[in-house]
Specification:
The protein contains 11 helices and 12 strands. By secondary structure, the chain is an alpha/beta fold. Strand 2 (31-35), helix 1 (42-54) and strand 3 form a beta-alpha-beta unit. The longest helix has 23 residues, at 261-283.
């Protein structure tokens, strides 16, 4: 990619969250709806929900298969749960209409943590990806479903933040980029999705349905195909199951608090990595688990509030 097509924002100061007004109420900080979970993977959506709460969203609802709703509800009393029709432990494609109805009042949506893989789930993911009218963070097996239906990627009605790890990025694009070409590869992928006319669903205000790609890993890349940011927080102790679910919740909460998709993504990966660094200082890298990141989010956010 020609270098003049990118504006390097690595040295641009990160956005800060403003101090909260004394008369604030939960409605001031947005309503997040997170959709995912399946039998055997209820922890993923629960951790994403807890992360969203710890990252400042005012109200958080988890939409999960009915077969795991009680389990998910028991993990954290501060979020709400909504049961969706399930088939053999997975969200059924027939649950798309009620899920879409649930998102109408949301400020931001997250899709994917623990959602699993089935044909019905893939149909469900495609519909929500295309039709939800709020900004959406997309992770985990929702990305797997979209890799099977690449035409959907350019068909969203609002901003989408895709958060693939390298393996998921390879499934989405067919290529695993070399370390020195991660930024270019992520930018090319985002630019392809955001190309004018790429989708018949493009609205009259295309900037509102932009796609941000967050290519996770050492020095996570955040890009919309033109501008990009490289993250420098985090450590190898974060290479553990559930870490990505925590990131999904952080970004969703920042969207709820009014950050643009690009700023929510780049501040989210910074805070996520900083929480990991703070955890590593006290408990070490080897013993770190994803829930430790949630425990250190309060200290991490203390560094990014104006």
């Amino acid at each position: 990619m020609p270098s003049n097509t990118l504006c390097d924002l690595t040295d641009t100061p990160l956005p800060l969250l403003p101090q909260r007004a004394p008369d604030s109420h939960k409605g001031n900080f947005g309503r997040a709806v997170l959709i995912g979970g399946s039998r055997g993977m209820s922890g993923a959506i629960a951790m994403a929900g807890k992360s969203t709460l710890r990252s400042g969203a005012g109200l958080v609802t988890l939409a999960v298969p009915r077969c795991v709703q009680d389990v998910v509800a028991s993990i954290e009393p501060s979020y709400m749960t909504h049961g969706l029709t399930d088939t053999e432990g997975y969200i059924a494609d027939s649950a798309a209409d009620p899920a879409l109805a649930l998102t109408v009042s949301a400020t931001a949506v997250a899709l994917g943590p623990g959602i699993g893989r089935s044909r019905g789930t893939a149909n469900f993911v495609e519909r929500l990806y295309r039709e939800v009218i709020q900004p959406m963070v997309v992770d985990a097996d929702a990305l797997f479903a979209l890799a099977e239906r690449p035409a959907a990627l350019s068909g969203a009605r609002a901003a989408r933040i895709l958060t693939p790890h390298p393996g998921e990025f390879e499934r989405l694009t067919g290529t695993l980029p070399e370390k020195q070409h991660r930024t270019e590869a992520a930018a090319q992928f985002a630019a392809k999705i955001n190309e004018p006319g790429a989708s018949a669903a493009t609205s009259s205000t295309p900037q509102k349905n932009e796609t941000i790609v967050v290519l996770k890993g050492h020095n996570t890349v955040v890009t919309d195909g033109c501008q990009f940011s490289i993250n420098h927080t985090g450590n190898p102790g974060m290479a553990t199951g559930g870490s990505g679910d925590v990131l999904t919740g952080i970004i969703a909460a920042l969207l709820c608090q009014g950050l643009t998709p690009f700023d929510a993504a780049r501040l989210g990966v910074h805070v996520h990595g900083l929480a990991g660094d703070l955890a590593a200082e006290e408990i070490g890298q080897v013993s770190m688990i994803a829930s430790d990141l949630i425990d250190y989010l309060p200290k991490a956010f203390g560094a990014v509030v104006s």
